[in-house]
Amino acid sequence: MEILEKVAYLKGLAEGLGLDIEKKEGKLLSVMIDVLEDMALEIRDMQEEQADLEEGLDAVSDDLSEVESYLYEEEGEDDAEDEEEDSDGPVYETTCPNCEEEILFDEDILADGCVVCPNCGEKLEFDLTDLSDPEEEDDGE
Fold first, then answer.
1. 117 and 124 in contact (C-beta within 8 Å)?
2. What confidence tens digit (pLDDT) does each residue in 34-87 have?
3. Is 124 strand, coil or helix?
4. What is the dihedral of CA 114, 117, 120, 121, to 10 degrees?
C-alpha cells in the first residue's frame, strides 16, 4: 500500500470512530491526518518529478554515448591511418641539438643522410658508413 492510500485508510478509520472535531483531541487528530495527507501528496509529486528527471538523464546519457562513440570512432580511424603510415617501415627518432625537440623520420630520410629540424630549421646530417651489419662480422670469423 502506498503512503497516500495508508493516509486515506487512516482518515476513514478516524471518521468511522466518530471523532468529535470540536473537542481538543479530535481536532488534533484531524489536523494530524490532514498534515499526513499533504505530506503524502507532496511525496507523490516529488516521486513523479524524480521519475521525469531520471528519464531526462537517461536521454542525455544516451545522447552523450552516441557523441562519444562518434568521436572515438573517428579517433580510431585516425589511429588506423597513422598505423598504416607507420607500417611502411620503421620510424626513427632523434633530438635536435639546437632546440632539443624530438624529430621523427623514416628510412628514406635516413638514406638521404640528413634531416631538417621542423622546429628550428637546423640541418642534421647522419654518417652511416661506420655502421656495419653484425651478421657480416659473425660470418667473417
1. yes
2. 999 999 999 999 999 999 999 999 999 999 999 998 888 776 665 555 555 545
3. strand
4. 40
DSSP 132: -
DSSP, collapsed to helix, strand or coil, labels residue 59 as: helix
The single-letter code of the amino acid at 80 is A
Which residue type occupies 72? Answer: Y
Q: Using CA atoms, how far apart are residues 16 and 52, in angstroms rounded to an integer?
A: 38
CA distance 52 to 46: 10
Tell which residue, 107, 113, 112, 109, has the closest CA to residue 126.
113
Task: State pTM to two decimals.
Answer: 0.44
